[in-house]
Amino acid sequence: MRDCVWKALILMSKSNAFKWRHYEPEIILLCVRWYLTYPLSYRQVAEMVNERGLDVHHTTIYRWVQQYAPELDKRCRPYLRSTNDSWRVDETYIKIKGKDRYLYRAVDSTGQTLDFLLTAKRDAVAAKRFLCKALKATHNQEPRVINVDKNAAYPKAIEQLKQKKELPKEVELRQNKYLNNRVEQDHRFIKRLVKPGMGFGSFNTARRTIKGYEIMNMLRKGQVRKVEKGAKISWLNFLLIRNPRKTVETPVGIC
User: Fold this and answer.
1) CA-to-CA distance for 168 and 125, rounded, in angstroms?
2) How far is the C-alpha of 13 from the C-alpha of 26, rounded, in Å?
3) Contact 133, 119 (CB under 8 A)
4) Domain extents for the chain?
């Protein structure tokens, strides 16, 4: 399984994904994966790497995350498994510069992530934007029922989508907080990662980082095709490898 990481990194190097980087690709990706998977701050990740004999500053890891988290999201999306037609939609707050911003998220009845969207406001316009994004995602089915809480913005947004024929009129809207327990429980996997950093310094920083959080959460749940649930390393082989004949030795002390 460890060979998958190094084969993936060789391919990314050839595709110039790590061009002009001072450190080896395997070191960069290891730091990015640690930060996006576990509730660690940038300083804690830097300390872990420094203990292994590498001189990496926490600001360097921050730049790596900002560069490669959106790239991981982009590479994963074409391989996501299909979800079902029972949607659970909710939003949670994220601190950005000390102010509340809103992360719209949706899962299906089995807990598989449908999509996510970070917005500055919590209103009908934001809800409509998020639903449009989820409807356009290739791995999502057209919803049969959409479960939401008592937020008044959702009925308005869904009615506008039906009037524009972007959403079938047969789609049922359920405003029942109890039915949304699954998505509310799913929020915790994202919130626990945000907590060590005590929020974000800018909207764009939050947007890029959350893309990484969400895609790693999807990988944890086994949403990527042909990748086993919980396989935190083997997914790299499936997403990035295009020449599986090449193998390299795994350096001691890295994995």
Assistant:
1) 19
2) 10
3) no
4) 2-79+224-240, 86-197
208-231 pLDDT, tens digit per residue, is 999 999 998 998 888 887 776 665
**Sequence-distant (≥ 6) Cβ neighbours of residue 119 within 8 angstroms:** 101, 102, 103, 104, 126, 129, 130
First to last CA, the chain: 11
Assigned fold of 86-197: Nucleotidyltransferase; domain 5 (3.30.420)
d(CA 154, CA 167): 13
Q: How confident is the model at residue 246 (pLDDT cuts 50, 70, 90)?
A: very low
pLDDT digits over 92-126, tens only?
999 999 899 999 999 999 999 999 999 999 999 99
Long-range contacts of 224-231 (CB under 8 A, 24+ apart): 224/76, 224/79, 224/80, 224/81, 225/79, 225/80, 225/81, 226/79, 231/1
Which runs of consecutive H residues, i.e. helices, occur in 151-254? 153-163, 181-194, 203-220, 235-240
User: Strand, coil or helix: what is 233?
Assistant: coil
pLDDT band of residue 5 (cuts 50, 70, 90) is very low
No. of helices (H) and no. of strands (E), the chain: 9, 5
